[in-house]
């Protein structure tokens, strides 16, 4: 972006804390704004939101065929967004494979045809220039200067003819005139081919491929000219978003696509105008638009009136969620494809002081509004702040934002798995509660049977008393006491899948009460549980693992090593080149699964999870968990 923005003058740059860089520049007497999204897969959500506001996109990829898979998540969301895309193969001065192999590897992840518009010109092992397949003109790269026009070298003539024929054949699929020209063996003029190529890109029919080396400025002018002549106008974006959001196109005024918090400023929202009439105080999203700021210098001015297509920042517009489609009086949810991958890394944030603890919950809620890749929950057993991040880099950035912007210092720890316990055998108990304290006493006598329930059935209560040995009005108190006993069993965990039956008992006309029967039931059930061979239960989650197909072979081994069970896998019908694995994974292994998946797939694979069931856990592992539970300060 630095090289593109500097082709005709000095660009104006600004950055958000999330790594989204905005570059405003002029090219061909036209104003341009580029949203340069961060490349790591953990920041994919910000790239998705940038696509929501973009007329077209450039996907910058490596010249190494084995690294093509790194572009797979981006090709997936680009195609889902229907954003016209130009694929730029960068660092061609350091070729680590043949260009055709790069394109073939990338094509495995793209439903659109990747269509070469240029081929490299080689001199020995070096790439010294490129040949445009439409104009059939060749250019020699010159360091720090505009490329020089040269004749097509004889060594490249055959490859150029072959690649041009493939280009024309693909373009003819979208143009009857060109098809007729090729059938009649007539050479179509370059101007007509450029027009067809421009229309095909605007209609999002293909993904053209250009090449270069940005660090040397090679291929930048050709790339920028392709954008200038072929990228669609903002009206096409407005139509696309209106269709995706089921909004009246005439009412769609703007799209919010990025937000962040600044110290002493508050929430800053980045907006792209899709119509005229926006200015400070105008109605947008059902409330008044706050101060409108220039991107480059952050200065507010009531005189700033963004034109259709302009990108601007606004403060004191906290009513605008990100991302969202905006009319003057409503906020419309963004399309489904903007939903970020499920966060895989779960951590408890531990504040450094009581002051930080009081601020942390409210601050995390603010941050989750501006970062949809982040999910904020509470740990079930302790109520501590539990954050679900995309990965370790995302978590580190979150902690830095808390420190730098909000002055909240935190450390993180792994959350404790949620264990339960049950019983392995039935038992019976006769418990009498009697207490005399000077006035009215307490008396309740219950006979209870306790039995294991089938898995997943939970707690059940029944009664078979006869002859009024326990009056009907006291039976709900017996059930309540039994439920209280389930809150903590002999191993120290909540008890599940147990049935309790009241089958006999006694009462006293004066001293019996609901409280007495509740106490008797609670104590009796606790005694019965201790005699019922307590068993530790671990949670098991049903996981959907999304992974590029080339990595599928390693997944069975990963799941098996984590004591999981593979249920099966299918091709992902919504994303070419991806598989979906379904597996049952113990809750204690989810953190290890995330780590192994990142390592095995270069950070690309991800999973979602839903609780499935609890299962028994025996042996040394269970003993260690119970011992840890008994240690002071340890919560599960």
From TrEMBL:
Gene3D superfamilies: 3.30.230.10, 3.30.70.240, Elongation Factor G (Translational Gtpase), domain 3 (3.30.70.870), P-loop containing nucleotide triphosphate hydrolases (3.40.50.300). Catalyzes the GTP-dependent ribosomal translocation step during translation elongation. During this step, the ribosome changes from the pre-translocational (PRE) to the post-translocational (POST) state as the newly formed A-site-bound peptidyl-tRNA and P-site-bound deacylated tRNA move to the P and E sites, respectively. Catalyzes the coordinated movement of the two tRNA molecules, the mRNA and conformational changes in the ribosome. Residues 535-625 form the Elongation factor EFG domain. It comes from the Bacteria. The lineage of its organism: Bacteria, Pseudomonadati, Pseudomonadota, Alphaproteobacteria, Hyphomicrobiales. Residues 416-533 form the Translation elongation factor EFG/EF2 domain. InterPro entries: EFG_II, EFG_III/V, EFG_IV, EFG_V, EFG_V-like, P-loop_NTPase, Ribosomal_Su5_D2-typ_SF, Ribsml_uS5_D2-typ_fold_subgr. It comes from Rhizobium pisi. GO terms for biological process: ribosome disassembly. The keyword Cell membrane does not apply. NCBIfam families: PRK12740.1-3. One of its GO terms (molecular function) is guanosine tetraphosphate binding. This is Elongation factor G. Transmembrane segments: none annotated. Keywords: Elongation factor, GTP-binding, Nucleotide-binding, Protein biosynthesis.
């Amino acid at each position: 972006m630095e090289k593109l923005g500097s082709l005709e003058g000095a660009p104006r740059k600004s950055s958000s804390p999330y790594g989204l860089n905005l570059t405003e520049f002029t090219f061909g007497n036209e104003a341009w704004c580029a949203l340069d999204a961060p490349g790591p897969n953990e920041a994919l959500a910000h790239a998705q939101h940038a696509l929501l506001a973009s007329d077209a996109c450039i996907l910058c990829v490596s010249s190494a065929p084995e690294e093509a898979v790194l572009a797979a998540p981006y090709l997936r969301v680009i195609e889902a967004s229907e954003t016209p895309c130009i694929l730029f193969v960068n660092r061609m001065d350091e070729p680590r494979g043949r260009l055709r192999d790069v394109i073939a590897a990338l094509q495995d992840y793209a439903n659109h045809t990747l269509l070469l518009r240029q081929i490299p010109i080689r001199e020995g092992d070096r790439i010294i220039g490129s040949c445009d397949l439409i104009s059939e003109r060749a250019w020699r790269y010159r360091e720090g200067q505009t490329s020089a026009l040269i004749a097509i070298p004889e060594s490249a003539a055959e490859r150029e003819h072959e690649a041009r024929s493939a280009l024309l054949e693909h373009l003819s699929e979208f143009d009857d005139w060109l098809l007729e020209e090729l059938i009649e063996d007539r050479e179509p003029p370059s101007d007509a081919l450029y027009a067809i190529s421009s229309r095909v890109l605007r209609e999002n029919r293909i993904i053209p491929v250009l090449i270069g080396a940005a660090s040397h400025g090679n291929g930048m002018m050709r790339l920028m000219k392709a954008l200038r002549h072929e990228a669609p106008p903002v009206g096409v974006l407005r139509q696309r978003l209106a269709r995706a959001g089921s909004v009246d196109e005439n009412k769609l005024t703007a799209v919010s696509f990025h937000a962040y918090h600044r110290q002493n400023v508050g929430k800053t929202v980045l907006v792209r105008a899709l119509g005229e009439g926006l200015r400070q105080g105008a109605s947008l999203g059902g409330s008044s638009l706050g101060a409108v700021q220039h991107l480059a210098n952050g200065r507010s001015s009531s005189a700033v009136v963004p034109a259709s297509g302009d990108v601007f920042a606004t403060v004191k517009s906290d009513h605008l969620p990100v991302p969202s489609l905006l009319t003057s009086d409503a906020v419309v949810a963004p399309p489904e494809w903007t939903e970020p991958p499920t966060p895989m890394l779960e951590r408890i944030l531990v504040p450094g002081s009581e002051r930080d603890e009081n601020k942390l919950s409210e601050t995390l809620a603010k941050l989750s509004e501006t970062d949809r890749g982040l999910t904020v929950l509470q740990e079930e057993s302790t109520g501590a702040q539990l954050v679900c991040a995309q990965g370790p880099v995302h978590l580190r950035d979150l902690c830095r934002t808390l420190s730098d912007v909000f002055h909240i210092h935190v450390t993180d720890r792994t959350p404790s798995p949620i264990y339960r316990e049950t019983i392995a055998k039935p038992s019976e108990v006769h418990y009498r509660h009697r207490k005399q304290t000077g006035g009215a006493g307490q008396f309740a006598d219950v006979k209870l049977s306790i039995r294991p329930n089938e898995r997943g059935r939970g707690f059940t209560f029944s009664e078979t008393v006869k002859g009024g040995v326990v009056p009907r009005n006291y039976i709900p108190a017996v059930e309540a006491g039994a439920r209280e006993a389930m809150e903590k069993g002999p191993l120290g965990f909540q008890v599940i899948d147990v049935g309790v039956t009241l089958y006999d008992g006694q009462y006293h006309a004066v001293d019996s009460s609901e409280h007495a029967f509740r106490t008797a039931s609670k104590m009796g059930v606790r005694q019965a549980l201790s005699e019922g061979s307590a068993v530790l239960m671990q949670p098991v989650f049903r996981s959907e693992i999304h992974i590029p197909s080339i990595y599928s072979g390693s997944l069975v081994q990963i799941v098996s090593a984590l004591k999981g069970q593979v249920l099966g896998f299918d091709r992902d019908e919504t994303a070419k080149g991806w598989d979906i694995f379904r597996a049952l994974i113990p809750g204690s292994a989810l953190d290890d699964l995330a780590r192994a998946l990142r390592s095995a797939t270069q950070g690309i694979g991800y999973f979602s999870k839903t609780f499935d069931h609890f299962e028994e856990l025996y042996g040394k592992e269970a003993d260690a968990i119970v011992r840890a539970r008994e240690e002071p300060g340890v919560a599960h």
